[in-house]
Amino acid sequence: MQVPGLKYEGPVYRPPSEASSLLIQATVGCPWNRCTFCMVYKKGPKFRIRPVEEIKMEIEISAAFLGDRVRTLFFPSGNSIAIPTRELAEMCRFALETFPRLERITVYGSSRFIVKKGLEEMKELADAGLSRIHVGLESGDDVVLDRVRKGSTAAEQVEAGKMTMEAGIELSEYVVLGLGGKGRTREHIAGTVNVLNQINPDFIRLRTFLPKVKTPILKEIESGEFEVLSPHEVLYEVRALIEGLDVASRVTSDHYTNYVGVGGQLPDERDKMLAVVDEALVRPESSFRSLYVGTE
Ligand code: SF4
C-alpha cells in the first residue's frame, strides 16, 4: 500500500507477506549491494538513509489519507536495519503514536548489520515498536555464502538470528533453494539446517534460485561454473530441509519462484509437508515451470 505523492526512489522491493502493509521508504538502495544473485539495486540508486523528519512527515501525510486503516507498516528498502538505532527507534515510536491501530512494524535486515548493532540496541528497537525483521539467510553453508558474496558467515547468521529472537523481535529467515548449484547442494542444505536449528526463527520462507539478468551469477551459469538444479533436485533439497529441521517455526513458500507450495507449522505438520513434496516428485520434471532468466 503506497500513498500517492510520497517519495519513492528505485525499485519497490518488499516481501509478499508485506503486500497489504503501508510502505514508507526509510532508506534508498542497499548498503551492501554485492550479492551475486541479486539484481535489485545493481543499477542504483546509491544507498542513503532518509532524514527522520522526512519520514515523520510522510507518516503524518499517510495518516491523513489512511488513518486507522494502517495495521502493518514496512520501511523499505534493502537493509533499513542499517539506520542508526536512535533514528530508527524514533521513526517506530512516531508511527505507533500516529497510527492508532498499528500492529506491526517491519524492516529488512542483513545479519552483518544486526550483529553490528548488538543485543542492547536490538532491544531498544523492540521497545520502540520494531516488531519483525526479514533476514536473507540464503544459505547456512560458508562456502556458498562466500561464493554469492552475501557478506555474512554462517556463524554471523546464527548470532544475528539469536540476537533478534532474544530481543523479542519476530524473525523471518529466507532460504534460497538451489543456491549451492549442483556442486554444493548437500552442503547447502546441511549448513542451512544447522543454522536454522540454532536460531529457531518464527518463520522460514523458501525461495528457489532463479538467475536474474545482469547478475554476476548469471555469468557463472553461462560459463558452466554454476549448474542450476533441476526441479526434482530442488524438491530433494526441500525434503532434506524439512526432514532435518528441529524447530518450532512456520514454513512458507510464498514466492513465485517455487516449484511447489510447501507450508505448515513445524514440527506438527512435517509429515503433511513431506507428503506434498513426495507427490510433486512423482510428476515429470517437464511439468514444472521451465528455467528462465528473471528480469525483476
Ligand atoms: S540480496 Fe539483499 S543484501 Fe544482497 S544485494 Fe540484494 S538487497 Fe542487498
The main β sheet shows up as: 8 strands, mixed
**How much of the sequence is in beta strands?**
5-15%
Task: Determine the number of helices (DSSP H or I, runs of at least 4 residues).
Answer: 9
Q: Indicate the low-confidence ranges by residue numbers.
A: none
* CATH classification, class level: Alpha Beta
Query: How many DSSP E strands?
Result: 10
Principal-axes shape call: globular
Kindly report how far apart the N and C termini lie: 19 Å
Please state the average pLDDT score: 96
Provide the domain count.
Answer: 1
Give a concise summary.
It contains 9 helices and 10 strands.
Please name the defining characteristics of this protein.
binds iron/sulfur cluster, single chain, 296 residues, globular, 9 helices, TIM Barrel, alpha/beta, eight-stranded mixed sheet, two-stranded antiparallel ribbon
Textual characterization of the structure:
The chain has one domain (16-283): Aldolase class I (TIM Barrel), CATH 3.20.20. It has 296 residues and is an alpha/beta fold. The chain contains nine helices and ten strands. The strands form two sheets. The protein has an eight-stranded mixed sheet with strand order 1-4-5-6-7-8-9-10. It has a two-stranded antiparallel ribbon with strand order 2-3. The protein is globular and about 55 Å long. The protein binds iron/sulfur cluster. Iron/sulfur cluster (SF4) binds at residues 30, 32-33, 35, 38, 40, 78-79, 110, 136.
